[in-house]
Amino acid sequence: MAWSSFPFPLCVETKGLSAVHQRERLRHELAFRRLRVSETSQISAHLRRVRLVGDDLAGFTAPGPSDHVKLFLPDANGQIIAPLVADDGSLQRPEGTPTTRDYTPRAVDTDAAGVPVAIDIDFVLHEGGPATEWARRATPGDEIVVAGPRGSKLAPTAPGRVALVADPSAFPAFVRWVEALSQPTVIDAVIWNAAAADAEYFDESVRARLASLQWVSEASGDAGLLDAVRSLELAEGAFVWAAGEAQALIAVRRLLREQPQLDRADIDVSGYWKRGVIALDHHAPLDPSDPE
């Protein structure tokens, strides 16, 4: 399913990140959409896809390859605690503590007129956690509230070479990056902390776009990840995107920022989760000792 182009941005800001690359920023209207499950499928050994539908999808847009939405999940009593946007635009927060997690939509399906009719969210199935448990049990008709994204950051314009680094939590964004980068961009990839059985997540169209793919086994650990990134051909003008477990990516970010041929603005590293931390705030600095 192709990622659609969306006609709904509120405003557009073009920001030059470096002398080489430009990336557009879009802002979107805040909305909390109550959606329902239409179907589920097992995409690979540890990734499960949940398709969400509903009339509230009208106006949904998420064109950036690593855009994220906030899922408001049912609590232990099956209740979804989520804010509402009032008619006057104010935010109304109900009593109680919401259960939320952030995810990158894998894909959006649209009708002939370009109106969104379904979104796919891919969940990594691991031990415990409210999102994992909800995805495991999800059946058609189950409800969930989806908020955002508030903004999008598009892929850079026509980069010559791009390196993509991801663990399973970042697989949906990784594939969207591949789809967003048109020929003749050369794409090198590093996948780490993933089971061999999850290789089937990447179909032939994705594999065909990769100039190189390094699959770093779970047994290789963080050191294996760093070695793989160190071996990448990162010539002047390259762009690097990396996402996944935050602690492991600190060393990756430091290594990349030490490369004199790379503009720091062309290094995009994000921690999606962190060992021992529940509901990591991925907006917080990845490396507090070097936040900029």
Span of the ends, CA to CA: 37 Å
At CATH's second level, what is the architecture of the largest domain? Beta Barrel
Shape field: globular
The CATH superfamily of the largest domain appears as: Translation factors
Total count of domains? 2
**How are the strands ordered across the major sheet?**
8-5-11-3-4-10-9
Structural class based on helices, strands and sheet pairing: alpha+beta
Mean pLDDT: 90
- Total helices: the number is 5
Based on CA atoms alone, the radius of gyration comes out at 19 Å
**At the first level of CATH, what is the class of the largest domain?**
Mainly Beta
| Helix fraction bin | 10-25%
State the CATH topology of the largest domain: Elongation Factor Tu (Ef-tu), domain 3
Percent of residues in β-strands: 35-45%
Based on DSSP secondary structure assignment, what is the total number of beta strands? 17
Largest sheet: 7 strands, antiparallel
Low-confidence stretches: 1-19
Name the helix and strand elements from N-terminus to C-terminus, one letter apiece.
EEEEEEEEEEHEEEHEHEHEHE
Task: Present the secondary structure layout.
Elements: E1 11-16, E2 22-27, E3 32-44, E4 47-53, E5 69-73, E6 84-85, E7 91-92, E8 99-103, E9 105-110, E10 116-124, H1 130-137, E11 143-147, E12 151-153, E13 161-166, H2 171-180, E14 186-192, H3 204-208, E15 210-216, H4 221-230, E16 239-245, H5 246-257, E17 267-273
Parallel strand pairs: 13-14, 13-16, 14-15, 16-17
Antiparallel strand pairs: 1-2, 2-12, 3-4, 3-11, 4-10, 5-8, 5-11, 6-7, 9-10
